[in-house]
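writing this on my phone so excuse typos. first protein, seq and then structure
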Amino acid sequence: MLTIEKLNDFGANTEEGLGRCYGNEALYLRLVGMIPAEASFDKLQSAIESNDLDAAFEAAHALKGVLGNLSLTPMYQVCSEMTELLRARTVMDYSALLQDLLTKRDTLGAMCAD
């Protein structure tokens, strides 16, 4: 079961995230619980694999907003870095950043499933 304590251990800024949800812990946890299934992760992965920097930017930018609003700091930081590189259309190997983000997503997913 997902808890504020688990999210704090993950590195999320739950105080800030809860503030955006007006202190409604159930709402915050429900929204965070939806993140692992967010379609933008698959869109980002597909775009990176097909070297479509425009689509990758759109997916990364969407994720950055959601992750930032929920204050999922460890994921937000990676996604923010990717977003800025993609915004500049930097041609590089994004696989390490993508893998880091997906690993964090899977860790969050496991916390939600416990």
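second protein below, same order as before
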Amino acid sequence: MSFFDALIAATAPERAVFAAIPQIRDGLQGRISRETYVAYLAQAYHHVRHTVPLMQLTQGRLDDDHIRYRQALDDYIAEETGHEQWILNDIRAAGGDPDRTVRDGPQAATEIMVAYAYDYVSRIDPMGFFGMVFVLESVSIQLAGLGAEAVRGSLGLPASAFTYLVSHGALDQDHIVFLKGLLDGVGDAGDRAAITHMARRMFGLFGDVFRSVPHYVAAEAELSHAV
């Protein structure tokens, strides 16, 4: 079994728990309110803005035995730069306030997820970062491929409110193929263990980010406004 396939198998329990989160389940069916979608985007902004700094930190911590992975991060950095601004634009297009998003800061769950990633890369093993990449890209494909269209259809929001999700769906399809080749080249048992550990933790921590998003299904949101 390739390491990529082994990683999928090793994280199956965590992925099952993640998939059962109400905000995820209802979002994929288009059964969330505009408020929930905007709240999700706000938390996305507060972790996505750390993507490039985390990649740069990982690069700086990888030694010459991992030069292939340092070089791979050059491509990731080039593609991920500026994506946090896309999210702010989507928030505005969805009727939210991007300035308030920046001003209010992240929810505790988002702050903890980001802090854990910085800590693991800095203190334990920078190769673990690729476990985070595995989680975020596999999740974003699912959200973009199913959730974006479902939510747009149910809420009647413009396409300009979904540029981050839709663009990431296309990008991450290619990224997953690239990541599979990259991970299948990881031969060191310690590196594999670090990546697997980070992936397991990230499914839980990223799940907590979704759980922290105030959630009403669309019909409940309409009822609360009517009252």
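The chain has a mean pLDDT of 91. thats all i got for now
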